[in-house]
Write a structure and sequence with these properties.
The chain is α/β, with parallel strands linked by helices and 446 residues long. It folds into three domains: 131 residues, Rossmann fold (3-Layer(aba) Sandwich); 230 residues, tm_1862 like domain (pyruvate-formate lyase- activating enzyme), CATH 3.80.30; 55 residues, OB fold (Dihydrolipoamide Acetyltransferase, E2P), CATH 2.40.50. Helices cover 34% and strands 22% of the residues. The two termini are 44 Å apart. The structure holds 5'-deoxyadenosine and iron/sulfur cluster (SF4). The site of iron/sulfur cluster (SF4) has 12 residues, from helix 1 and helix 7.
Amino acid sequence: MMYFEGKKYNVVTYGCQMNVHESEKISGILQDLGMTLVNEPELADVVVFNTCCIREGAEDRAFSNIAALKKCKAKNPDMIIAVCGCMPQQKQGKYDLKKKLPFVDIVIGTHNVNMLGAYLTRVVDTKKRVYEVVDTPIDLSENKTTIRDDKINAYVNIIYGCNKFCTYCIVPHVRGRERSRPYEDIKAEVKDLVSKGYRYITLLGQNVNSYGKDLNNGMTFASLLTKLCQIEGEFKLKFMTSHPIDFNKDIIKVMKREPKVAKCLHLPVQSGNSDVLFRMNRHYNIRHYNKLIKATKRGVKNVSLSTDIIVGFPGESEKAFEDTVKLLKKVKYDQVFAFMYSKRTGKPASILPNQIDESVKNKRLNKLLREQKFISKQMLNDCVGKTYNCLVVVHNGVTMGLTDGGREIYLPNDSNALENHFVDIKVEGIRNHKLSGVIKCQKSHQ
Ligand code: 5AD
Ligand code: SF4
């Protein structure tokens, strides 16, 4: 539509990598309409808020940032504001937004975001607001323009939705049931990205390990990884998120065998206490989780582990919380993403007895983060003497290697000829709390 030619847009994103990638597709839709990106929402003709509802805090932030645009809209009545993603997709979401933010022009959910271009045109044509939230995905067409934020890492969806129903989690309610993308589509996208020079391809899904279950063609996540490794070029595959009940030995074997699979694993545990895990409906106990971690460490040399933790889940005793701290000490994660339990209306955990006080949650979160900081410091020492296959990057004239887990290893400056290639780096020591190392031998995954 000519109307949008030359107009300016901005996309504000909240939430997970799924949403970050969704916003890259939204940028694609807007640029296809002829618009260009500006850095400030206040300066844009079209502002899209891609929202998250996983915790109350994420919702509050979005509400206040959208509300802050009211003044701009009063000055520039032609400004179009759209709200999409997980917030409107909740049962009451659309109505809440309609009531609380009446100056918003478009409210859509997670299932019809690829219709955004059509809705924008409708607003201009009819001068009427659009409130459209649907229960199932419509218009499954893909391969739309994607404006990627990162030059090294590219996201690729492999599965949408979630079938797990953890008692605290809103995701299955706003993202629907699991739908795997056809293998041929994934392969074509990965091939294209590798040919464009992306070195890391991150396969995305709420539970990537479920890949293929709904396709009924024998494909599994392990076989998907194996097949994608056959694509020629210098690149590595990452994936997130895994679920401990579906992550298995076959996947560990592929991680061990394939040089093109990054040696890192994000395996959310949520709690180190089996009773809490049961009430969370996680389908595993801590023994099972520990076995998986042990098998991964044994199989995948120098693997980098990360996890998600919820503190203050209903009924979490001081002892149950301490079990989680113990787990962190035992596993030694490179990264821990910890959150205070946030009540989500309508989810089973919201009516469990023994809800925990905010002040107790806060105290536990701080203690957990303190412990993890201490563990991370120790782990830096553990890296010395080890060898990691790294991507060489140059930032502001400084050359370093990035491990698969995202750690930086400083290199002598004459290593910059190897920029943008994978090489083996041996960590030799620690300088100013940073690792320093030397290149052992050149090794690329052609
Ligand atoms: N409260 C706090 N944290 C939550 N998460 C999911 N739902 C909630 C909630 N209601 C966390 C989990 C999940 C991560 C993406 O967000 O740890 O793995
Ligand atoms: Fe937030 Fe979950 Fe939606 Fe991601 S899928 S944006 S974490 S509610």
